[in-house]
Amino acid sequence: MPERTGAAADAAAENADAVAKPKAKKPKLDKLEAGASVAKVLLASEVSTPSNPLAELRSLGYWPKDYPAWLEVQDKIWANHPKLAAGWFRVWSRSKDREYYVRLPHYRATFDLAEAMQPTKNPFA
């Protein structure tokens, strides 16, 4: 068989190296490491889970009496909920048993979340 030279010899050598080298095995996680990884994922999902507004209102011990009072409890009642556009806040409707959205400064109300998330040029107009 004739001896290879130049580029053909280099290509043959690379192919031989690729075939001869065993692939490195990925390290396996032991049970303790796997459990810790699962615990981290569960903890992260608990942190980002939106709160239950009605349950949070019940635990508050009182019902906010007016819009300024609702503004004060936004972060507690609606923890981890999507942020609303500037100038909007959430209120719980007792008669509809759901949240609605109010825009400052004129206290314009709507049940349409898409409207409350839509940025406006001047949120206080």
Supply the key terms.
125 residues; alpha+beta
How would you describe what is shown here?
The mean pLDDT is 79. Strand 1 (88-93) and strand 2 (98-103) form a beta hairpin. The chain is elongated, with a radius of gyration of 30 Å. By secondary structure, it is α+β, with helices and mostly antiparallel strands. The chain is built from 6 helices and 3 strands, in the order H-H-H-H-H-E-E-E-H. The chain has a 3-stranded antiparallel β-sheet. 6% of the residues are buried. Helices cover 44% and strands 12% of the residues.
Write the layout of secondary structure elements.
Blueprint: H1 7-20, H2 31-48, H3 53-60, H4 67-72, H5 74-77, E1 88-93, E2 98-103, E3 108-110, H6 113-117
Antiparallel strand pairs: 1-2, 2-3
The amount of beta strand, in percent, is: 5-15%
Instruction: Please tell me how large the radius of gyration is.
Output: 30 Å
Mean pLDDT, rounded to whole units? Answer: 79
Judging from the principal axes of the Cα atoms, what is the shape?
elongated
Q: Count all strands and give the number.
A: 3
Based on secondary structure, the structural category is alpha+beta
Secondary structure tally, helices: 6
**Sheet with the most strands?**
3 strands, antiparallel
Bin the helical content.
Answer: 40-55%
As laid out across the biggest beta sheet, the strand order is 1-2-3
Order of helices and strands: HHHHHEEEH
Distance between the termini: 87 Å
Poorly predicted runs are: none
